[in-house]
Amino acid sequence: MRRILSISFVALALSACQPGDPNGGRVFLSVVGTPFLLALKIPVCAATIAVAAPLAGVSEISGPATPDGVDLRNNLGDGLGSNCGPPYVVNP
Fold this sequence. Notes:
3 helices; mainly alpha
C-alpha cells in the first residue's frame, strides 16, 4: 500500500511539471493575490467610509441643493464604489 501511495505522489508531481495552460502564471497570481487584495481592501474601505460619511453629512447640512454639494456627494459615492466595490478577486 505504501508503495502504491508513493508512486501516486511521484506521478502527481511529474504531471505538474508538464506544460499546461499558457495563462497558468496569471491564474496562479490570481489565486495567490486574492487574499492579499481582500486583506488590503477591507481597511481601505473602512477608512473610506470613516472619511466619506461625515463629509456627506456636512455637505447635506451646509448646502443640499447647491451644485457643489451634489458634486461632492457624487464624488464620495464614486470613491466608495471604487474602494469598497468589486472586484473582490485578482483578475487573471
